[in-house]
Amino acid sequence: TRDAVHMLDNAIDICEYPLPQMKEAIEKTRRIGVGVIGWADALIELGLPYNGQDALKLAEKLMKFISNEASEESAKLARKRGTFGDFKKSTQSKKGERVRNASCTTIMAAGPASMIADCSLGIEPHFAISYVKHTPTSEILEVIPLFEDIARKEGFHSEELMRKIALAGNLNDIPEVPDKWKKVFVTAADCSINDHLAVQIAFQRYTDNGVSKTINLPPTATIYEVEDVYKKAYEAGCRSVHVYREGSSPNQLMTSVKRIMRKRKKSRYSR
Fold this sequence. Notes:
Layout: H1 2-14, H2 20-29, H3 39-46, H4 53-81, H5 91-95, H6 111-117, E1 130-134, E2 139-143, H7 145-154, H8 159-168, H9 179-184, H10 193-204, E3 214-217, H11 223-235, E4 242-245, E5 254-255, H12 257-270
Helix pairs in contact: 1-4, 4-10
C-alpha cells in the first residue's frame, strides 16, 4: 500500500498534461486511488463464500488496513514534499492532518488490469463458472482458471464436466462437484441484490473515493427494486452505485452459455 501511494504520487509529477490548466487542477488535490483487484479469487483461495458474513468482515478489515497505511504514507510524503495545493481549504486542514493527497483510496472496475493479472474483476464476484465473452470479432468461451485448477487437484476434473458446467451456468445442479466447492464458487447470479449491495457498502466504509461495483439484477427485476438499491446505497453513504439488469443490453460483454442457447433457439423458431 505504501509503495502504491508513493508511485501514484510520483505519477502526478511525471505525467505530461495536454493543458497547463489540467496540471494545475490535478495538483490542487493530488487525488490518487489505491485499491484492490482479484477479490473473488482471494475469497475462493481462503474457502470463503463471496456472499457470506465472514467475507464482508474481511472486506472491511482489508480496506481499513489499506486506508490507514495509505493515509500514513501520504502524511509521510507531505512532510517531505508538502501538501496538495488546496490543503488549507480542505477538511484535513481543519482536522490538523497534513497529507500529500486529498484522497488516497478507491475501488476501480479494473477490467484490463484484471485480465493482465489473470484474476477476477475488481471486487466483483465471478460472472459465471463458465461464460461467453464477446469481442468485436468473436465469442470466447471462458472458464474460471481457479476452478479448473482446484477440480484437477481434487480429482473431479473432466472435459465432459467442464461442458456440463458451461451449459448449466453454475454448480447448483452438478452432482460431480463436492458441496464444499459449490459453497465457495459463488457467481453473480447466486448473489441476491442485497448481497451485491452489502459488498459495496463494506468496501465503501473505508474508501475515500467511489467504489466500482455492479449490482447485478435478474431479468425480472422491477423499477421499484432498482429504486430500492439507489436509496439503500445513498443511505449507507456510498459515493456511487451502478446496476445492471441481465439481458437489458443487446451488446452484453459477458453472457451465460445457457442464455445464448435460449436466444439462438428462439430466433431459429421465429424464422
